[in-house]
Design a protein that fits this description.
The protein has 202 residues and is mainly β. It has no helices and 13 strands.
Length: 202
């Protein structure tokens, strides 16, 4: 390659991971809302989704961001994330701001620490979002729409606290893996993101 051919060397980069997660909306499990579900006053199941780790290895999931938009006549300020298999205690809570809710520290309710939720190799975890909805008695055509957001730009591997993104996850590839090791990235180009939207309507 000569100096005049420098542009020929430009191309798309490739990121290699030990394992990767896959996301998909879940509307089939009992209690998971569909596009035909009607919202009600009180606690509602807002959204369900699956995260599957590739069979090559476990993944850690630290941060999730959902788009949760409600129409006029419906109010919902706070939502909670649960493991579908154990809905006795929320994994994380989030305040809805500008139609988004960000869940951090998915492995525990202590939001002052970075605690990931680990998904075993080849395993799938179903998460369910719940929120308290108040519907105006005179409201018509109320809609609550939700989906998991993707990231639009690549984040190089870094420690968990240094990664910017709607999603923060790790392939657990570093020796003595922790939230301080440089094997964390965001949700750019992750399969299934953004997830399909589910809209409950009244």
């Amino acid at each position: 390659v000569t100096a005049n051919d420098a542009d020929v060397t430009n191309g798309n980069g490739i990121a290699l991971y030990k394992s990767v997660p896959t996301f998909v909306a879940n509307t089939t499990k009992t209690g998971c809302p569909t596009n035909s579900t009607k919202p009600t006053n009180g606690t509602n199941n807002i959204y369900c989704f699956d995260v599957t780790a590739n069979s090559a290895g476990s993944v850690d999931l630290l941060k999730l961001t959902l788009q949760i938009a409600s129409s006029a006549g419906a109010t919902m300020n706070t939502v909670y994330l649960y493991d579908y298999a154990d809905q006795s205690v929320a994994l994380s809570g989030a305040t809805i701001s500008n139609s988004t809710a960000t869940f951090s520290s998915l492995g525990g309710a202590d939001t002052t620490a970075l605690i990931p939720d680990t998904i075993g190799a080849g395993g799938t975890v179903t998460y369910i979002i719940k929120g308290n909805v108040t519907i105006d008695s005179h409201a018509q055509n109320v809609t609550i729409s939700s989906r998991v957001l993707a990231d639009t730009s690549f984040a190089p591997n870094a420690s968990a606290g240094s990664v910017n993104g709607n999603i923060i996850w790790s392939d657990r590839s570093a020796s003595n893996h922790s939230t301080s090791t440089a094997d964390w990235t965001n949700g750019y180009k992750i399969s299934g993101l953004p997830t399909d939207q589910v809209s409950m309507s009244l």
